[in-house]
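A sample follows:
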Amino acid sequence: RLLAGGGRFGFVPGALLGCIPQCGFSAMAANFYGSKVITLGTLLAVFLATSDEAIPLMVASPEHWNSLAAILAVKVLVGMLAGLCVDFVFRRWIPAVVRGGYSGRSQDVDCHEHEEEDGILTAALKHTVHIWVYILLFNVALGLVVALVGADAIGAFLAAAGPVQPFVAGLIGLIPNCVASVLLTQLFTAGQLSFGGVVAGLCTSAGVGLAVLFRANRNIKQNLFIVGLLYAVGVAAGLVCGLFA
């Protein structure tokens, strides 16, 4: 009910809930978006506010608590502003076929993959198993790629990016795996990544939420639009923070 909000202002609690450590809310929001329960703005707010493993890592280092508070405040603010712009300010310029999600009509809400002969528990169990298998296979494949390339090589490339760090960090943040947030946080705490760079990377770091989105929502155009929007907003937030940090 908090996220749906009758199709209005769900981006406010979405940005706040997204700050909870791990990426559970981003995965849940992706499922809700695919079922047309929440709006695009709410989904975007949750994704932007999600930090995956960044919070536990920075909490373990008291000297970085001030930076953690600043990062979370920026992410919540960016999430709310992005959700407001998408759902209200620029809503008329985003075609409905691209926007997707909740449209303001309750009859559009669809519990996908639910069969009438199944009870709610059976349907939920089937959907959970499907998502679990998908994420498992995806992460195994992604883990192999990271192992071949090497996390150190990725980190060195990012550290050497200089003023374009937000653009590179934003791309790394799109990796739907906790390796992205872990790497970005470690580089930031080591002084190799700027505040603007870590903001950009952690804004686009929605964890497995992006992977679940492509599984739960079959409209590729909508999914690619969301990824592009997430990257653009994340990089913009990083560039702005870089001007003041």
